[in-house]
Every structure is written in C-alpha cells, then in structure tokens.
Amino acid sequence: MTALWEQTPTFVGVAVGALLSFTLSTLADRARWRRDVGIRWDPQRMTVYAEYAFAVREMYQIVLAVATRHGYGQGPPRPVASDVDAAIAEAEADRAARFEAVLLVGKPQTVAAARRWHQALWHLECFACGRLTGQVEWDAAMREFGQSRAEYYRAARRELGIEGGLPRTSTPAWKAVLAQRAAQPVGPAVAGDATQGARSVSGDGP
What we know:
The chain has 206 residues and is an all-alpha fold. 78% of the residues lie in helices and 0% in strands. It is built from 7 helices and no strands.
C-alpha cells in the first residue's frame, strides 16, 4: 500500500500530462479547422465584396448623372436613360441582391460598412430625385459617400488579410481643369474668340 501511495504523484503527473496533451491537440485542431475554413471562404468573400462594390458604383453613376441635371456635381449633364426612375430602380434591385450575399459571408464589421455605404448612396439619390436640395448639403452628402466607400474597402481588406491601407483617391489636375471648363457656359463672344484663335493658329486669320 505504501508503494502504491508513493507512486501516486507519478500517476497524477501522467494523467495531467495526458489531459494537457489532449487539450493542446484539440485547440490546435480547432485553430487549423478555422484557418482552413477561412482559406476556403476568402476567394468567395473577395468575389462577393467586389461584386457589391461594382453594383454600388453602377447605381452611383446613374444617380450622379441625374443629379447633374439639377446643377449638382461638376461638368455638364451626363447621359442617362430616358426612364430615370426605372434605371434607378433596376440598379437598386441589383445592389440589394448583392448585399444579401454580403450578409451571408461577411463579418459584422464589413456588413456594417457596406450598409453605411449604400445608405450614403440613398442620401445622394434624394438630391437626384428632388426630395432634398442645397449645394452645401449635396457637398456634405458627397463627402459622406466617399468616406463610407473608403470604410467599406478598409473593412473588406482587413477581413481578407490584405496588408496596407487603402490608397487615397485623387483627381488628376488635367481632369479638374476640364471639368471646370465644361461647367462654364460658352457665350457667342467666347465662341467667336475661340474661332478667331483657331484661325490665327492655322494661318487663315488676317
């Protein structure tokens, strides 16, 4: 009995070691499973996030084209479908369908960022449809849209494990100049000066 009692610490040590080995093995297997699941879902998530972003961009282009007719934005009015309401409704339906996929595979932070982005788009739509007015308010809504877009891309990149921040968007100087010129009305005198200048350059002028 004494010999058995003396071996008790050894038995306890073996039992503790076996339990610890089992626990570590279980945790490692669980971590491996989670990693494998993440690797398996990452390509699908990337596709879903990209398709959602494209759908939001398509609707944004339509909304912006309609808004320029009300004097918002830069440059001349952009071409838009004859049936504006139908074009916006079709784009919104496609965006909503893409968002359902984001809800299925996205993590909460990415889903929340996606929701803020299309809510900002809805804000712009209110100006395009005449439910809201005001240049200052429009400019603020545009900033909100740009910020929510950046937040969405940051959340998606972070979830996919893509290192580095999102590069800042900038408008080339030449594009800003063209937009500014297009926004200025061309009167008869200006047009005449431009024609006269063209003739002088070509050698047809006096």
